[in-house]
From TrEMBL:
Entries under InterPro entries matching the protein: Hexapep, Hexapep_transf_CS, LacA-like, Mac_dom, Trimer_LpxA-like_sf
GO molecular function: galactoside O-acetyltransferase activity
Class of enzymatic activity (EC top level): transferase
Claim: DNA-binding is one of the keywords in the record: no
Keyword Acyltransferase in record: yes
Homology family: Belongs to the transferase hexapeptide repeat family.
Domain Maltose/galactoside acetyltransferase residues, every copy: 5-59
Keywords attached to this entry: Acyltransferase, Repeat, Transferase
Enzyme Commission number(s) of this protein: 2.3.1.-
Protein name per the record: Acetyltransferase
Pfam families found in the cross-reference section: Hexapep, Mac
């Protein structure tokens, strides 16, 4: 017989009011509370708490308080991950974030789902689907990433987008529902190289 935690991580229906899950949830809430009460001068303490909270942390990560997460133990972040204020991660299922990923304020990653049927939903059943984000991704403020979504590498997501389907590599995507606006191309690289040159000429 599988535990409720095993069912949860497999993406199957599970009951959240399970003693093991409540223990994990309470542990995460304590670490989140401690993290959110640190100051800007406590960088080492923030790193220590983040490493204790999350399943895996890369180098040079920064979680701008306040930061919120359900379990932490189901979330991996790569090197140079930065999230601005009020990030929310509901990591009922696994969340994997690559290297050099930047979140604007109030980004939400929601792996959690509930049955459409009200009777089953009211009995307390839930489920989760994983979220994956590649390398070199910038996600604008107030973006919502829904369960089961994969975002490729070298992607820019416009602010306010609601992502319901996978986003491929090397694109700008925007809207509700989020859709590909265009490819990122060599003209973008040339433009920003010129802007950088202007910076050094000032």
């Amino acid at each position: 017989m599988r535990t409720e935690k095993e069912k949860m991580l497999a993406g199957d229906l599970y009951i959240a009011h399970d003693p093991e899950l409540r223990k994990d949830f309470k542990r995460a809430k304590k670490l989140v509370r401690l993290y959110n009460h640190t100051t800007e001068d406590q960088k080492e303490e923030r790193q220590r708490l983040a490493e204790k909270l999350l399943k895996k942390t890369g180098k040079g990560i920064h979680l701008e308080p306040p930061f919120y997460i359900d379990y932490g133990g189901n979330t991996e972040v790569g090197d140079n991950f930065y999230t601005n204020y009020e990030c929310i991660i509901l990591d009922i299922a696994n969340v994997k974030i690559g290297n050099n990923v930047l979140f604007g304020p109030r980004v939400g990653l929601y792996t959690a789902g509930h049955p459409i049927d009200a009777i089953i939903r009211n009995e307390g059943y839930e489920y989760g689907k994983p979220i994956a984000i590649g390398d070199n991704v910038w996600i604008g403020g107030n973006v919502v990433v829904n369960p089961g979504v994969t975002i490729g590498s070298n992607v820019v997501i416009g602010s306010g987008s609601i992502i319901t389907k996978d986003i491929p590599d090397n694109v700008i995507a925007v809207g509700n529902p989020c859709h590909v606006l265009r490819q990122i191309n060599s003209d973008d690289k040339k433009y920003w190289e010129l802007e950088k040159e202007k910076y050094f000429k000032e």
